[in-house]
Amino acid sequence: MILPQQVFALPYILPQNFSPLATNILMWGLLLLGYALMIVIFSYQFKKGQPTPNKIFQKLSNQDINAIITGFIVLFIIKIIYVMLTSQAGQTQNDQALQQMFKLSTNAALMMFLMTAIFAPLCEELLFRGIFMRYFFPKNTVLAIFFSGLVFGALHFHLGDIFWTLLLYCALGWVLAYYYKKTNKLLVSILIHFLNPELSNQVRKKLFAHS
Fold it and tell me: Is residue 150 a contact partner of residue 176, using CB atoms and an 8 Å limit?
């Protein structure tokens, strides 16, 4: 999951006579190929050995839509509490990294938008909810939710972040895991993840402000 993100280092490691157009084409090619392979592998693992076919994109019921709305509100409240408890005004290491990337170019901003708003929700939900919760504690819902959120939070935590930031991402993971278990539909947690103000709204605002 980390490898496709390394395309942003290409402009710094390619020869200086490498044209900007060729650099952008190479970056886009590697980014899309990397995420395509990841989605194929994760989707295969998600569906592998399932007693009944479990599709990623299933028709949503009214209860599912209510779960998505409720999940979004819960995450919004969590973010407000995080801002109140910290002096960083919600600024995590992830946010700072995003801001630095958006300063590079419109091309980088668009790539970050696709990564954070589209690819990350899909790939991370496939891994941390669809695959992780199937292989770890499949018969214990509480432990499955707890450890799914804990691992998710730990892998989003960066050196320099404060404890509340770890708790913020763990809480995000717990909410996503809860609604995945509640609805048994991965699309529900994917959409909540997409709507999450911590990971998506910052990206959309930065992209449109830059363009």
Answer: no
